[in-house]
Amino acid sequence: MARLNKIEIEVKTGDARGPEEPTLNINGFPLPFSETEGGTGSGETLKAVGNPQSFPHGLALVGPEEGQPAWDIETVTATYYCQNMEPYTVHMGAVTIDDQSNLNVWQEPPAKTFDV
Predict the structure, then answer these.
(1) Measured by CB atoms within 10 angstroms of the end CB, which terminus of the chain is less buried, N or C?
(2) What pLDDT digit, counting tens, does each position of 33-84 carry?
(3) Architecture category of domain 4-104 in CATH
């Protein structure tokens, strides 16, 4: 398992807005973003940076608070900066998350390839 030093995430919101201050959960613990730009309003794009400095068994974008409307997400792009490896980027498609769900954004690093 790779130690995740930093994650840069870009979330494009669809019609239904997201939480005012979105956060990540890493291994069940809240991780506020250290930098944010943009927003989660209808049609807006949020660019955010988190610095977990940990080994993620789970990494999730947190959905709206209880009683709040669902969040329509058009796309998510996450770039992972793991210790002792090159950064890698993963693109995710449309999804709706509500107060009962979060979006798993942790993707294991790609397997090393080599010629034989």
Answers:
(1) C
(2) 999 999 999 999 999 999 999 999 999 999 898 889 999 999 999 999 999 9
(3) Sandwich (2.60)
Buried b / exposed e along 80-111 (16+ C-beta atoms within 10 A) = bbbeeeeeeebebeebebebeebbebbeeeee
Q: Which of 44, 48, 34 lies closest to 77, judged by CA?
A: 48
Mapped onto helix, strand or coil, the DSSP state of residue 36 is strand
Domain residue spans in the chain?
Answer: 4-104
Residues in the chain: 116
Can you read off the two tokens belonging to residue 80?
């992972």
